[in-house]
From TrEMBL:
GO molecular function, one term: diguanylate cyclase activity
Record protein name field: Diguanylate cyclase CdgB
Gene: cdgB
Sequence ranges assigned to domain GGDEF in this UniProt record: 456-586
Organism: Streptomyces nondiastaticus
Residue stretches making up the PAC domain: 282-334
Length: 586
């Protein structure tokens, strides 16, 4: 009888409980822990059969471990019982402290539910505490170790070796074991989750290292320039890292590049373009300084990269050398706006420059018109610099630069911040105006039928060569072309730096010179005619041409065609008068 050997039972139970609890902490995985829990019931607590039912993420309970019977293990392991059925069992059972007991007299209603079980029929008990094969004893396990926590699983036991229902001490031992088993299972789950997290973290780190290595190789060995610049803080814009291609392009080492930002290297005229495009997805075409002091055209493409969720942000910049493309574009633009034979601005470029100097409102037609002519020699629009000049270049590149003509300088239409609703760009980007744009200085045509009062204006000298047709017919187009080239050179050498010499076509040339009085314009025509008169040698042969000049004046309120037509008519008047004078002299 248990009561007769109670001290012995207690000592043996404590020894077995101590051993199986110690074994719980030696399991290496969650599966091992669950099996150890089931085995401990059989080896340490005196039951012939035990099963561990573990709560799954969906709430149902799966038989995770079985001990004591190979047949029971084959029948029950891996099978699932619904949460509803388990809650029904625990609710109808007698409470033995934290344990739940369903006697065989009441358990028959559970024979057909979906909870996996291993029970056999047997005779009625011979004495009150005898264990019946249909008795059911459960030890619920909770995450917090007590009934107040979340259900972790249920240990079910069967067939006590002494054939009796457990007494108070046996119940306490099973309850204590379930408490320790819940802790061991929770720890095993935590270790398993940590191991999975560590494996996942290692994989992510490996992927990150692989990604970083791929980026490093793509960055370092990219055929075009790459740079990483800092964003924000005191070092905003500072180049943090550059690849070999960018270092070769700019002729600087990587350590030297780290001393600069792009704003230190950009051409002064392109700084505004750089600042406008220093944003995610920003693009720009501008010039960067090489170590030798020259500039190279590049295309910048920017993207913002975050180092971490709230960490520092960097600007990743792709730098592509577009010098050849720019040179080709500039050559095409130059051909479109310049005469292929002489290299002078052509008719379209001449009209564009002239139109950009004029507005559609004549001086004096508005109360606040600035009826002041530009100072002598300050027609900014006619200053040629190396490369493509004029509004064609401005229309192509939309910015100032060594390739843009001086016509887009301050005060000209390319710099007008707001030309008003009446401003309409023409095909050369110059535009016409019904009213003057801000900062515009009106061009005033001097009164030609009155004595020279010293008023300065924009003179238009229309030049037609005399005797050119005869040279062309007699000696051929080769000689004629050589004459035109030489005349263009002499005309260009005879004007100021800010003036324009253009070829309209054939043997017709036009000179635009701002800031001249009537006397100045007449003197300029005499000097240019004198420069053309000396013989021109072509293939060992000396030929001579003359020139007739007509002087017109451009003023706001006039169109470019009206100005050129006026100068053309005056040239023919001058040509006829010189012809009559020659006949009278003969």
């Amino acid at each position: 009888m248990e009561t007769e050997s109670e001290p012995y039972v207690r000592l043996a139970t404590l020894r077995g409980l101590h051993q199986v609890v110690a074994d719980l902490n030696t399991a290496r995985s969650l599966a091992d822990t669950l099996q150890t829990v089931a085995d401990g019931i059989v080896t340490g607590l005196g039951y012939e059969l035990s099963a561990v039912n573990l709560v799954r993420p969906d709430g149902d309970l799966v038989v995770a471990a079985v001990a004591g019977s190979a047949g029971a293990e084959a029948l029950m392991a891996g099978r699932v019982g619904s949460r509803v059925s388990w809650e029904r069992r625990l609710a109808m059972a007698d409470q033995w402290g934290a344990l739940r007991f369903i006697p065989y007299t009441e358990g028959w209603v559970l024979d057909n539910d979906d909870v996996p079980q291993w029970h056999t029929a047997g005779p009625a008990p011979r004495f009150p505490d005898e264990w019946h094969p249909m008795d059911r004893l459960f030890a619920p396990m909770y995450t917090a170790g007590a009934a107040g926590g979340e259900l972790l699983g249920v240990i079910s036991v069967d067939k006590p070796r002494n054939g009796r229902r457990p007494g108070a001490w046996g119940r306490e031992a099973l309850q204590m074991y379930a408490f320790q088993a819940a802790i061991a299972i929770s720890n095993a789950r935590l270790r398993a989750n940590m191991q999975r997290a560590l494996v996942r973290l290692e994989r992510e780190q490996q992927a990150l290292r692989a990604s970083e290595e791929s980026f490093r190789q793509a960055f370092e060995y990219a055929p075009s320039g790459m740079a990483i610049a800092e964003m924000g803080g005191d070092q905003h814009g500072r180049l943090h890292r550059t690849n070999d291609a960018l270092c070769r392009l700019l002729g600087r080492s990587a350590s030297q590049m780290r001393r600069y930002s792009f704003s230190d290297l950009v051409h002064p005229e392109d700084i505004g373009t750089l600042l406008r495009t220093s944003a995610e997805g920003g693009r720009a075409e501008l010039r960067l300084a090489r170590r030798d002091g020259t500039y190279v055209w590049v295309s910048l493409r920017n993207s913002v990269v975050a180092d971490a969720a709230d960490g520092p942000r960097f600007l990743l910049t792709h730098v592509e050398d577009i010098e050849e493309r720019k040179r080709h574009e500039l050559q095409l633009a130059h051909r479109a706006s310049h005469d292929s034979l002489t290299g002078l601005p052509n008719s379209a470029e001449l009209r564009a420059r002239l139109s950009s100097r004029l507005c559609g409102r004549a001086p004096g037609n508005e109360p606040h018109a600035a009826a002041v002519a530009a100072p002598y020699g300050c027609l900014d629009g006619f200053a040629e610099v190396e490369g493509v000049e004029g509004p064609v270049a401005a229309a192509l590149y939309g910015q100032e630069g060594s390739y843009a003509h001086g016509f887009g300088s301050e005060g000209g239409p390319d710099h007008a911040p707001d030309c008003g609703p009446d401003y309409a760009p023409d095909e050369f980007g110059c535009g016409t105006h019904d009213g003057a744009y801000p900062g515009h200085v009106h061009a005033i045509a001097p009164a030609e039928d009155e004595p020279d009062d010293g008023t300065k204006g924009l003179a238009v000298l229309f030049c037609d060569l005399d005797g050119f047709k005869a040279i062309n017919d007699r000696f051929g187009h080769h000689t004629g072309d050589a004459v035109l080239i030489e005349v263009a050179r002499r005309l260009s050498n005879g004007v100021r730096e800010g003036d324009t010499v253009a070829r309209l076509g054939g043997d017709e040339f036009v000179v635009l010179a701002d800031g001249l009085t009537q006397a100045d314009a007449e003197d300029l025509a005499v000097r240019l005619r004198s420069a053309i008169l000396p013989p021109i040698r072509v293939d060992g042969r000396a030929v001579r041409v003359g020139a007739s000049f007509g002087i017109g004046w451009a003023g706001c309120g006039m169109s470019a065609d009206e100005v050129l037509h006026s100068a053309d008519q005056r040239m023919y008047v001058e040509k006829r008068s010189r012809a009559k004078a020659g006949r009278r002299a003969g």
